[in-house]
Design brief:
The structure is a homotrimer of 212-residue chains.
Chain A (H helix, E strand, L loop, with lengths): L2 E2 L2 E2 L4 H28 L4 H27 L7 H27 L7 H22 L7 H31 L4 H35 L1
Antiparallel strand pairs in A: 1-2
Helix pairs in contact in A: 1-2, 1-3, 1-4, 2-3, 3-6, 4-5, 4-6, 5-6
Chain lengths: 212, 212, 212
């Protein structure tokens, strides 16, 4: 459909898909690194800087997509959906970076079983999100995209329950207020990552429905 | 206008209005229930679950509107306005649910005169919002819609003043930091409900101006 | 271009630019006043009311732009960009007002070297933002707009570093939890002003790229 007699009518559509996959895979990379840090309790200045590098890579890919969007006449999906998809995928990475950065600021190096749970959910959700994104390029795979989106929604619901249990335990812990203030923020940021993955899934669902 | 010789050119417009009224009325239901809980100080696991059911109903109606939007060619308003209207109405319900859920998590069962004030404002604002939404279907009633929007704006301003007074009193109370942290969050979430009702009113104003 | 033989094809475009400059200059006014208050430590009920007046002026200009947008057929930029530009400029003013209002609520009158740093960054960023906005009217000046946007981005990065250092110091201070809770909020709101200036810059970049 894209090529006719050597003439490319929509020469840049492939670029969009490639950039989206790059961005989604960068989110998986951030989630993977976060899971390692949460497993080992290895939050420090060095690992925060490494996460920041991943975040910066996400910014660059997002900027590239926006630039392409503003200079491309024919796009594979609605312009607004492309903008939202890039923006929300980038926010997933930003939010994972915000957690490790805030832990650096608060000089929190220890981990917790609850943070490991969140890191596991975030990793699963980023992975399902990236698989949903990868399914968008091929019209025949679009049904698969919806399956991955359902999984992202399920993980967000699971995250809500983990957050509620975690905060209940934290506020019952009798720990000092500063300790509670810090961890409350880290756990809420963690749950927000899952919310933003759900935002991505909503954009993808919207794209798929329009293509049907 | 919609029917000509038995042929329906815009057969699905009525559905949009019905769904919007359903969603706005679900927000009123949530506000009504919240007012009862705040009056009686009956926040607990059971009432939080009942509020969650209302929130789930809101999600279903919103999802239905989005699906309809993505598969309908001709819509009664700008597509973006429809999307924003559904999204913001749903957020009103989400935010009321977030308050009762957070009170459950923090094991807060008591009420306060300030929470009763907020519950009263939220109930008034959700009601005015639903009346504004109901006015959208009939072009002749659109002036009434704007009157309800002005009321929603007024209630938001009133909420800002209540929040400021409430937080001043709370921080002057000499209560322990954890107590202050919990109630600060509940009061701020309460005020946010009024902000989101104002967001709904802004979308409605935008729709009315374009139809004029 | 706009006038041909005395006939104005696009008679209202000039109005948009005038309103945008008014709004951006109101943001500079708010930033300027905030810098004075932070320098002198003169936060009180009277100065909070004066800032609120500035915020109200911003609301009026924004409302005017939205009304114009909804009733004008031909606009100088994409409708969505106009909406976002007005909305985000207004949010800059709202957020500066939120800081002084919250300090009034918390009865904080003192200043700090960190707050002075933020006030300086906010003033620089609002000024660069206003210069970027002013560059939009003249196609030949659009390159200058991008330079100002780069400066706004740079100031946002600087603000992130100031916020991290400031919060680290605050949490290490050994001050009581309520003191930390209050100042954490003030510093985070301050950094958010810089984030929103960056949002404005992103909208401006998007406008410039499309005009190229």
């Amino acid at each position: 459909m894209e090529h006719f007699m050597g003439f490319s009518l929509l020469p840049k559509q492939g670029d969009f898909f490639e950039s989206f996959n790059n961005l989604a895979n960068t989110a998986v990379l951030a989630a993977d690194y976060f899971k390692t840090l949460a497993s080992n309790g290895s939050f420090n200045v060095t690992t925060a800087a490494a996460m920041h590098d991943i975040e910066h890579k996400g910014d660059e890919i997002t900027h590239l997509i926006f630039k392409k969007l503003n200079t491309t006449f024919i796009t594979p999906f609605d312009r607004e959906d492309i903008h939202n998809l890039a923006n929300k995928l980038d926010s997933v990475i930003d939010m994972i970076n915000a957690i490790t950065n805030r832990m650096k600021v608060y000089k929190m190096s220890e981990t917790s079983s609850e943070l490991k749970q969140f890191a596991e959910l975030i990793h699963k959700s980023a992975t399902a999100t990236a698989l949903a994104v990868a399914s968008l390029e091929n019209t025949k795979k679009m049904h698969a995209a919806l399956e991955y989106c359902i999984e992202v929604n399920r993980l967000e619901n699971e995250g809500d329950i983990v957050r509620d249990t975690t905060l209940s335990t934290l506020f019952d812990s009798g720990k000092d207020p500063i300790y509670i203030l810090k961890w409350k923020e880290i756990y809420e940021l963690s749950e927000t990552v899952l919310d933003i993955c759900e935002d991505v899934a909503n954009v993808i669902e919207s794209i798929v429905v329009k293509q049907a």
